[in-house]
Prior knowledge:
Layout: H1 4-15, E1 22-25, E2 33-34, E3 38-39, E4 49-50, E5 54-58, E6 66-73, E7 86-90, E8 103-107, E9 123-125, E10 136-137, E11 148-150, H2 158-166, E12 171-175, E13 179-185, E14 189-190, E15 201-202, H3 205-216, E16 219-226, H4 230-236, E17 242-246, H5 256-261, E18 265-269, E19 272-273, E20 277-283, E21 286-291, H6 295-313, E22 322-328, E23 338-346, E24 351-354, E25 370-374, E26 382-387
Parallel strand pairs: 6-7, 13-16, 13-17, 14-15, 17-21, 19-23, 22-24
Antiparallel strand pairs: 1-12, 2-12, 3-11, 4-10, 5-7, 5-8, 6-9, 18-20, 20-21, 22-26, 23-24, 23-25, 25-26
Family: Belongs to the MoeA family.
Organism: Corynebacterium uterequi
EC number: 2.10.1.1
Amino acid sequence: xxxIDDHLARVLATVGPALPARRHRTVDAAGLVLATDAxxxxxxxxxxxxxxxxxxxxxxxxxxxxxxxxxxxxxxxxPRSAAPGQxxxxxxxxxxxxxxxxQRVIPVELTDIPPGPQPTPATVTIRDLPGDRTHIRDRGDxxxxxxxxxxxxxxxxxxxxxxxxxxxxxxxxxxxxPRVRIIATGDELAPPGAPLGPGQIPNSNLPMLAQLxxxxxxxxxxxxxxxDDPTQFLEATSNADLLxxxxxxxxxxxDPVRAALSDxxxxxxxxxxxxxxxxxxxxxxxxxxxxxxxPVAAFVSFHLYAxxxxxxxxxxxxxxxxxxxxAEGEVRRRPHHTTIIPCIVNLSDGTARLGxxxxxxxxxxxxxxxxxLIPPNHSDNTIPVIYTG
Length: 389
């Protein structure tokens, strides 16, 4: 019987490389993985500017001098210089002349002018000097123009977006987020909120998997429910970068996914509990990850196989983040299967509080942040945990 690692390798081989990169507006590329390096177009800051709220003065100014205030320079205004005996009230980030060798900024706290909103004073008394600091930031002090700023393989997070926009990088070449279609099968499933017919249960898998796909980085997540009819299942498929199914892959007489995709997909058992029935392959050109239908089994299997598939298509590292933590709760073991138990990870004390891993107990999933992997005949209280955040 295949191991979890065996089946994950099969899924990733089926999915293949990352989606082809395309150009995106930087402000629209949050979460995407860069396909190429990008260098600063603009220097940051793009002009010399004041690092403090205060007064721009000539460097001949001494403590005790009373200076004539000749101008105000708030942020967004043209620069002004100060001659001997003069001061220019200036705000943080406001420009100073590019040739500022004879200029310095005196913080407002070192003058007789109270901090905060004030009318432009006629004069300012310099009470003290800020040592040898000029409180002026040079053009390109943070990032020179042409400096490599973003690297291929990096994920564009909030900080990198801010840096890129500040540096004039308006577009980036990045792998798009994969489009995912999720199909849950089963005559027993009723839409959330709908009256239940005989033998029916609410379809909790579909919204759960849709949220997990979005959390994993998918875009344009489409969901659908199909009855236990292979023909209707095939009618439901459509263009997507990844198709995820839930249910219909076991050895039952009414398993439409297995019946519909048996020619192009592998189906079998993996040495894990819950979620032994698994499947993967292609439907046309679209890679397919087939998950079990029981809620906890679907939840566990999504993290094990579908989330890495989404990460791989997006150009991210598909590997799991594995922690080794001290178990709190019953460590259930099986002789021939890896037991997977959703758990709550406490990073501060290095523990994993184990929940109830029974495949039908969906209420045990709330708030879990990891999957404890209990190998066969494991005897140690320290266990490997996939951290899911």
